[in-house]
């Protein structure tokens, strides 16, 4: 049961009353939207504010580094140092009036979510925190009132038949249907609603003793009230820290060969059949791999080997900083220069991006260049898979196109459910796609042939590359799938998928409703695959981060391998608007629990727009041997290495791939074999698929209510739902996992689900 009333369609300004927001009370971070007080007219330009703040790293994702920020006329810019700012070497900038600001007094955190950019900042002291919050608020108000003026000017111009102001179109666009961004505040996990952080106006009077020299006049005798103090702070030009003495460190000293350049020379030709197996034309689509020296026999191969060796030896000499792009303007973070902040448990909880590996190496900025070259090379390759997928005898389209849902406002829905798993939020049916999360999980097997290939690859390092390619391939589908949300499975719902053509069979079950957990298991001659899917959400005001917990497992019986890996963070940028898109970031570590011969590290690079390359959707990986030496490198773009091109009309049909289109197909032969709990038999989802949207909407309500009633009845009797095909246990690391109990296929065969007692879900 989702425990939610379906939010009305349409946009409503969220309530400002804290206590009314019951939905968020259980959650780790309280957040509330406050009115920004934008009605102010003729606001004076607030003073400039600049100084150092800690900023959450984009690379690696955990930890903080010191960055210089300047807030001027509503624009917040930052760079590594003040000097860099003056030279225009910016790391980023954003319009604070378009960002949602969240603050956490206790951890001195300020988070700005501008939809595309998510900045996490932390002040070193409460005073600085207070000043920055005040300043940011003032600049936001200023910028917004400026926008209102422009808007009024535009209307006037229109009514007077004057020319349209060019900037207005811009203005309308950037607001993107999202109401005036306000700030949100949140507290640590332990807090209850009543203890939530006070709004800025109530920030501590202690903040009067601000450190800044320019503010010393505020100290001591004169009792200011907070309002005055805020006004004074906001009008001052503040430099919040003296610039440090110029260090003698030389950045970007001459590097003869960049690793990235070496990689850039690789093309799919280098990944010729001898190395990666001719039977799999698909692998180069994903991976440009660095072949280990002993294998290189061709002249170009030798050349690359030499280059790689050069790179290897140079990286051995400077283990902390690998050579980066030879581009002199390339920016890179140096571990020794970054202040790794000992984050409090609270702050690190907030960061939510913990991983058991911390790496101080940097992302390789030129990978995108390599990827471009590689892309050019495959586009001319005759081995490209044909545009039409091979005939599987399955349907190639859906019965009806996806409904237009662009008019549906998500504001109320999301604000009413802040902190809740997206999977628990009931949405109006036009926001759904006709697959359930159980089916969506199965889509991660779309490129199961990579596992088949892995199971035919003798060399353990190369085998690992295929496993890694498989791990990445699960994300490819996300590129076209941000307009609709999968159905939340009903507790006890199941889904099976038998693919003779691919040689595997898959089962999944919704095993827990609170928190929602979907467990799945697939078997084939070559591999087994299982995972249980659960995740945490973080909503920052414009973007929603999904942090999956739980590990993915693959075994290859032929080699007695058991691979295990984590999943990365998926961020839905601009979740409330039609400019929504998905980004994955973080690090995946693949381990073979049965052998320590090699491990693999894959990085989904968080995009940086200031670099010379666009590194959107970039993935980099390395296979390491026992001693930690790099044996293979690979990389690419997660959305590009798709082996089958999308079906022509994919936009009309929910952005589905061919595999996804086949997912909910129900043939007369299959029907009698399925348990009645199978997703294919869920009537509202079927109706949506057939384009009967209104009927589906009503039915969905009924089904959700039925689930609710069943839960109530059970808890009254003191009973607990027991999953039918999976059992809960602990893995070797002591984590709670759900494993198949092995009964599904046996029952299906004998006596058959027709002859068993089944749950009545819909
Ligand atoms: C408000 C609605 C219409 C916006 C659309 C939400 C969509 C894009 C969301 C809803 C649930 C999300 C999925 C939830 C869980 C996972 C598992 C994770 O390991 C990869 C991402 C993935 C697969 C998410 C992809 C994005 C997703 C499908």
Q: What's the rounded overall pLDDT mean? A: 71
| Biggest β-sheet strands, sense, barrel | 9 strands, mixed
What portion of residues is helical?
10-25%
Strand-pairing-aware structural class: alpha+beta
Annotation field: number of helices? 18
- The fraction of residues in strands falls at 15-25%
Shape assignment: globular
Distance between the termini: 13 Å
Low-pLDDT stretches are: 1-41, 162-221, 245-363, 378-389
User: What is Rg?
Assistant: 28 Å
Cofactors and ligands: cholesterol
Number of strands: 25
InterPro entries: OSBP_sf, Oxysterol-bd, Oxysterol-bd_CS, PH-like_dom_sf, PH_8, PH_domain
Family: Belongs to the OSBP family.
GO cellular component, one term: nuclear membrane
Subcellular location: Cell membrane; Cytoplasm, Cytosol; Endoplasmic reticulum membrane
């Amino acid at each position: 049961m989702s425990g939610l009333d379906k939010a009305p369609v349409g946009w409503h300004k969220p309530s400002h009353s804290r206590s009314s927001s019951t939905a968020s009370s259980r959650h780790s971070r309280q957040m509330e939207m406050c009115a920004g007080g934008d009605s102010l007219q003729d606001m004076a330009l607030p003073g400039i504010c600049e100084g150092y703040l800690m900023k959450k790293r984009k690379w690696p994702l955990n930890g903080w580094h010191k960055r210089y920020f300047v807030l001027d006329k509503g624009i917040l810019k930052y760079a590594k140092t003040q000097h860099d700012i003056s030279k225009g070497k910016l790391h980023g900038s954003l319009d604070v009036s378009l960002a949602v600001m969240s603050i956490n007094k206790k951890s001195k955190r300020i988070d700005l979510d501008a939809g595309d950019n998510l900045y996490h900042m932390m002040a070193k002291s409460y005073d600085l925190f207070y000043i920055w919050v005040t300043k940011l608020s003032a600049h936001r108000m200023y910028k917004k009132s400026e926008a209102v003026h422009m808007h009024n000017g535009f209307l006037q111009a229109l009514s007077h038949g004057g020319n349209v102001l060019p900037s207005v179109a811009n203005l309308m666009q950037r607001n993107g249907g999202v109401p005036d961004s306000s700030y949100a505040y949140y507290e640590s996990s332990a807090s209850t609603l009543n203890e939530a952080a006070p709004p800025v106006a109530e920030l501590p009077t202690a903040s009067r003793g601000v450190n800044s020299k320019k503010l010393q006049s505020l100290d001591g005798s004169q009792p200011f009230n907070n309002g005055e103090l805020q006004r004074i702070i906001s009008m001052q030009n503040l430099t919040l820290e003296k610039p440090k003495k110029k260090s003698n460190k030389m950045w970007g000293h001459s590097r003869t060969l960049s690793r990235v350049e070496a990689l850039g020379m690789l093309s799919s030709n280098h990944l010729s059949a001898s190395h990666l197996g001719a039977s799999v034309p698909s692998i180069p689509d994903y991976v440009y791999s660095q072949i280990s020296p002993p294998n290189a026999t061709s002249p170009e191969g030798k050349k690359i080997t030499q280059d790689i060796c050069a790179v290897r030896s140079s990286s051995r000499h400077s283990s902390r900083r690998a050579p980066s792009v030879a581009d002199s303007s390339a920016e890179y973070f140096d571990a020794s220069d970054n202040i790794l902040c000992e984050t409090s448990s609270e702050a690190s909880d907030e960061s939510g991006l913990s991983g058991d590996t911390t790496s101080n190496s940097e992302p390789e900025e030129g990978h995108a260049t390599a990827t471009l070259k590689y892309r050019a090379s495959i586009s001319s390759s005759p081995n490209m898979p044909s545009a039409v997928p091979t005939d599987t005898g399955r349907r190639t389209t859906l019965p009806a196109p996806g409904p237009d849902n662009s008019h549906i406002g998500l504001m109320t829905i999301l604000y009413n459910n802040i902190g809740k798993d997206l999977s628990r939020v009931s949405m109006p049916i036009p926001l759904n796609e006709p697959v359930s999360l159980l089916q969506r999980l199965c889509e991660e097997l779309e490129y199961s042939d990579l596992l088949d290939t892995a199971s035919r690859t003798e060399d353990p390092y190369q085998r690992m590359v295929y496993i890694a390619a498989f791990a990445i391939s699960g994300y490819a589908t996300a590129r076209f799938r941000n307009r609709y949300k999968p159905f939340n499975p009903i507790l006890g719902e199941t889904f099976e998928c038998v693919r003779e053509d691919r040689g595997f069979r898959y089962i999944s079950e919704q095993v827990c409703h609170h928190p929602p957990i979907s467990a799945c298991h697939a078997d084939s001659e070559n591999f087994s695959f299982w995972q249980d899917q659960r995740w945490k959400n973080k909503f920052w005001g414009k973007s929603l981060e999904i942090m999956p917990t739980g590990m993915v497992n693959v075994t290859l019986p032929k080699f007695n391998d058991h691979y295990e890996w984590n999943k990365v963070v998926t961020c839905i940028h601009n979740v409330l608007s039609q400019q929504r898109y998905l980004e994955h970031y973080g690090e995946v570590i693949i381990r073979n629990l049965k052998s320590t011969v090699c491990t693999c590290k894959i990085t989904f690079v968080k995009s940086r727009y200031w670099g010379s390359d666009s590194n959107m959707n970039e993935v980099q990986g390395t296979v390491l041997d026992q001693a930690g030496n790099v044996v293979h490198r690979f990389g690419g773009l997660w959305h590009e290495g798709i082996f089958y091109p999308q079906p022509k009309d994919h936009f009309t049909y929910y952005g589905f791939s061919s595999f996804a289109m086949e997912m909910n197909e129900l043939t007369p032969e299959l029907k009698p074999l399925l348990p009645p709990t199978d997703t294919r038999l869920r009537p509202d989802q079927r109706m949506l698929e057939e384009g009967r949207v209104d009927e589906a909407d009503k039915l969905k309500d009924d089904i959700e209510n039925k689930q609710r009633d069943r839960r109530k009845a059970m808890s009254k009797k003191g009973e607990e739902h027991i999953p039918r095909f999976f059992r809960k246990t602990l893995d070797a690391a002591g984590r709670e996992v759900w494993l198949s109990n092995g009964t599904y296929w046996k029952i299906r065969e004998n006596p058959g689900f027709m002859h068993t007692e089944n749950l009545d879900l819909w």
